[in-house]
Hints:
By secondary structure, the protein is α+β, with helices and mostly antiparallel strands. It has one domain. It contains three helices and 14 strands. It is globular, with a radius of gyration of 17 Å.
Amino acid sequence: MRSSRIGKGIFAGVLLAAASAGAALLLGPGGDASAGSGIAGEYVEARTCDVWTGPCFANGEINLRGDNAVLAWRVTRGKSHGEDLSGLAVVAAIDSEGTLTTNVEGKIRSVVFVDDRASEAARSALLEVAKSLAPRYLKDIVEVRPAKISYASEGRSVTVAVGNDVRLETTALSSHCDSVCGNEAGFYPPLASVPEVECAKAVENSYSGSSLGPRWSDPNKRSAMIGRFAF
């Protein structure tokens, strides 16, 4: 009975995430279809649970792990509300009551860091981009703060740093070294709307800020996803 309820909960979470993704792709930042102007970029996330995993392992983690995450976007080209966002980044740290993208995720809060190289208007535009791509998970933002953000990527190797608050580093998964049961696959949908993601290993995944209350460090887990966005 418990497995059946968990399976239904996960399925409901997948449908909810898919619906949010579809809505975000149809709209520009802030829900305005005319606000964006060919914006495209890179995306990476890491959670405090395995996302490349087998269903039996994932079911065993429900409501025990996966309640925190780091999300990061870097705009490679595009303008919003007349502001050129090319090369700028925005990062969010997420805290939920239960496992994200399941029916037990509960209340969700976030803190958002916007690139301190951007003008005030560009920072507002960056925030709107992030909120349009992850509306469910950036609905209750407890703080928005300018910060020095570094974002470097090459294939599945991505490194993100936000001052002393956030560290995220990914690398490619090894089907030999990182496989436990031999039945692994991308089990969860991404937290942001991206057409397609690839799973990766989080060498480092940490949040040490004070705005959310909880802090975490969850390195060397099969917990990351990498993708691209465009609208």
